[in-house]
Amino acid sequence: MDVNQPKQEHLLALKVMRLTKPTLFTNILVTCEERDLPGNLFNQLMKDDPSTVKGAETLMLGEMLTLPQNFGNIFLGETFSSYISVHNDSNQVVKDILVKADLQTSSQRLNLSASSAAVAELKPDCCIDDVIHHEVKEIGTHILVCAVSYTTQTGEKMYFRKFFKFQVLKPLDVKTKFYNAETDEVFLEAQIQNITTSPMFMEKVSLEPSMMYNVAELNTVDTAGESESTFGSRTYLQPMDTRQYLYCLKPKQEFAEKAGVIKGVTVIGKLDIVWKTNLGERGRLQTSQLQRMAPGYGDVRLSLETIPDTVNLEEPFDITCKITNCSERTMDLVLEMCNTNSIHWCGVSGRQLGKLHPSSSLHLALTLLSSVQGLQSVSGLRLTDTFLKRTYEYDDIAQVCVVSSEVKQ
């Protein structure tokens, strides 16, 4: 702490103390083998030590709590609490005492005083006490400025300040990855790392989606009809450990038709993280709005709505395609179906699909068969825009497993 002492002798004394929870005391383990010179002396001393757990003296576990001996670390998202006391050390009555506490950060100055009213008088050996709380929302240097003004019996106005500097550290390292599915779903992987020096109990890690999406958390499994966390019943995150959380976002019904034509950067939502440390101190962080770059589909997007997983060899099967006009002009499309070495299309190639307006879609039912067993790729679709004479090729649209009819039966 950096403290500016007043230059002249004041009638009042200001004391500031940070309020933190105590910590568990851990004894220092000192032991030896029985054949060594101390014999059983060290073991007996540990058994007689009142701070050790009976029956587990060698595990460095303690039963006692110790008060903090220093200012300690303050992490982003935690609540900073401080006790402020102004004591009258003189033998005369002091009047019009005003105590003000401000917190100076790199971007703003906050008033933390519980009351802005002045105390009429303070008798000798009496004090004015106040407790301030502030949820820390910025990283970096913070300065607690405590100012005291008062009036002596002779009418002289006095004023002094003290400064207490501390650093706010980053508790978590959050990294995100986006995966775009063909069905307009977006999968978000959030990697959260504990970069503090103590374990954390992860109380909640949730995703608050934007107005376009509904979210489904994929961090639980159903066991005997009950939902259980994939991280187990005790969700502790040890120092420097990393944990992955997965979420699936689906466009809402009113945005589902436009999801395929959205371009540029879109807002997904923000993560809300709540944790507890030591003896239940609570911390909370909310990330800024997470953004992802929408995948580019060109002027025309072709996606599969339905397709079977397994089909019989040389037997027709049906698929449903969705064609979306992602451009800003009306298209007149022609569909061509080109056979490959394994995939054969059933139907008329070169048929007119008609006009497709911007941001609109149409569904198309197609029939095909495979002449080769194994995992085969559906390919060979061509869309031609008759206005611009431009052809769009679609290969490797999806995969299907082809087996003989005997194997499937």
UniProtKB/TrEMBL annotation:
- UniProt-listed InterPro entries: TRAPPC13, TRAPPC13_C, TRAPPC13_M, TRAPPC13_N
Describe the location of the Trafficking protein particle complex subunit 13 C-terminal domain by residue ranges. Answer: 308-402
Tell me where in this chain the Trafficking protein particle complex subunit 13 middle domain is found. Answer: 172-295
Domain of life per record: Eukaryota
Q: Which residues form the Trafficking protein particle complex subunit 13 N-terminal domain?
A: 10-168
Q: What's in the GO CC field?
A: TRAPPIII protein complex
Per the UniProt record, one Pfam family is TRAPPC13_C
Q: Which family does it belong to?
A: Belongs to the TRAPPC13 family.
Q: How does it assemble?
A: Part of the multisubunit TRAPP (transport protein particle) complex.
Name under which the protein is recorded: Trafficking protein particle complex subunit 13
Origin species? Psophia crepitans (common trumpeter)
Q: Which gene encodes it?
A: Trappc13
